[in-house]
Each structure stands twice: as C-alpha cells, then as structure tokens.
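Revision sheet: structure tokens.
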Amino acid sequence: MSEASFVQADDDEAWEAKAREREDREAWAWEEAERREEAADEARRKRMMGENLRPLDVEAFLRLPLPERDFLLDPVFPERGLAMLYAPRGVGKTWAALSIGLAVATGGKFLRWQAQRRRVLYIDGEMRAEDLKHRLALLTAGLNAEVAPGFFRVACADVMETGLPDFATLEGQAEVEPLLHDTDLVILDNLSSIAKGDENEQKRWTPVADWCLAQRRAGRSVLMVHHAGKSGQQRGTSRREDLLDLVIALRRPEGAMAADGARVEVHIEKCRGASGEALDPMEATLKSHAAAALWSWRAVELAEPEPRFDGRAVQPELKVAAEHALLDGLTVAEAAKASGLGVGTVGRLRRAMVEEGRLKGRVPVPHSTSQEP
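Predicted:
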C-alpha cells in the first residue's frame, strides 16, 4: 500500500471516530430530554394527586403527632437514627459492631450504654463465614440472655451464591428491600464492601445516603461500619458524617499488645442530643474466658493541654545558664547544648523571656567561638 493510501485510511478512521462521537452526543441529548420530560410528568402527577412538597406553617408543624424518640443505645444512639463506627484495620470494628447488634437484640448492654430490645439485621460483605460464625459463638456465649428467634439475623456474602448486591445502586437496594421487614436496626459491615466504587466520589455516596434516609423514614436505624484512612479519620468523602446522629471512632491504645485481646479506645466524635459522661472516651477490652468473649471497660482521662511554660520548674542553675546563653545571642539549639537543657525547654524559656521583655523578639545572631585576629 502506498503512503498516500495509508494517509487516506488514517483520515477515514479519524472521520468515522468523529462521526461516532457526534452520534453519541446526539443520543445522550435525546435521552436527557426524555428523562427531563418524564421527571416533569411525574411532578405534574404528584401535584394532581396532592403528593407534592407542601411546607407546613410552624404552628401546624408543632402540632404534628410525632412519636417520642427512644434509644437503641441509651443515650447515644436513638431509634430511627443513623450512625457510623469506624477504625483502622485490625482494631476490632466487627467485634464491636456484632456486640452492639447483640446488645440491641437482647436488650442488654454494650460497655456503659444500655440497649433497648429490638430486631437486628446484620449484613456482612467481606468476612469469611467461618470467622463470623466463630465470633458470634464467642459473643453469644458471653451474653446474659438468649437471642430470641428473629431478633438477630445475619446476611453473609460468603454463603450467598452471588454475594451481596451493590448498595450504591437502586437495583441493589431493591434487592435488599425484602430482607428489611420486621427490622429495627440494620448493620452494614462494612461500607466499602457493600457500597462499592470510588469512596472519594461524592456521587457514589448520594444513593447510599438516600437509602439511609429512607430507612429512617420507615422507622429503622442504620449503623455503618467503615475503615479509617491514613489520616486516622473515616475514609472517603467527609459528607458521610453530615446526616449521621452518631459517629464512634475506635483507636488502638498506645502500647497495646496482641496478647491484650481486642483492646481499643472508644471515642464519640459526634452525638446529636446527648452530653455528659456518656460521651467520655473509654478503653475497652474483649477477652475470651471459657469459650465466651466478654467486654470490660474503664474511663480514659483526656490528655491535658500543655501548660504555660513555668521557668521555676527548671533547675535554677541550668535555667540561669540557658538565659545567659540566649542573652549572649546564642540560638535555641546552641543555648540548649551550652546549658544541658532540652531544645523544647529552652524554646519555651526564650518565649517566656520575650513576653517578659527581657529578650527582644528577634532572630538571634548565631554565636561564634572563633575570635577576631
């Protein structure tokens, strides 16, 4: 084939590609127009049937016969509430989520919080069925009450032929809908395996958020289990927390060992309508005793903010040596070396001297040990 023929072939392919692109744009425009027309028709139908949005006057709204809101976990997790429990991998998210579900199913306690007896559906998207069975066996053996039939049901992806549907799609949500009857609390473990896709894509979260709000309108509560990212915060878009009533973060305590069992710090990062010691952080430990897993907990004191530097706490002779070195123009690092104090201590001492007016707030001139000839 001649060079001219190659050029002609390339031109033909480019023309066909542009033609296909133009046809795709036109097809999308027609489809978009049809979707808009269908949406407009639906809005007109709702107005005719009286189903359209109708705001209420404040007095009418205050007279609405709304039910009193009780708690699944008193006083942090309300009925018809939306919650998230998140932690890094291997810290104990599933242990905690299963324990919350079993506490609600039996009307027992989880750590310091008392549960109301309600029906629970636990949906697990990634754990091996054998591991989930083992954990449930340990936790149920440690309960003070038996789980009544129908009060704790498990949907485990590992024992389903096609796995779990994608909660981020309307089709997946419709497939799960029949499981939700006679359910008061739905636990999703975990969000990454159940709502698939790019977690940083806010559009991916929108259908899941809409589904959660629909569950609340239906009288159900939802607890989502999620991973922490590298920053330590929940992974993905922060918009997830906007609609939540409760956010629980599990963190690995400093110095925790594998022999300690599932040892975690429990922090309430968001809780609507609750205050006081019920929100104070706890250190919780799960240990097995005679084939039963039991939680224990203790209060954790919050770290005090660093107090204002008090030079009187420093050894007098070292403080005097550091002050003289700073007044002589040495840098903080040089003054620390000359006095024997730490760099941080000398830095705070210098800041205090500046505030007291004994030292100008300027960058010190580096001190040189060499002498002019």
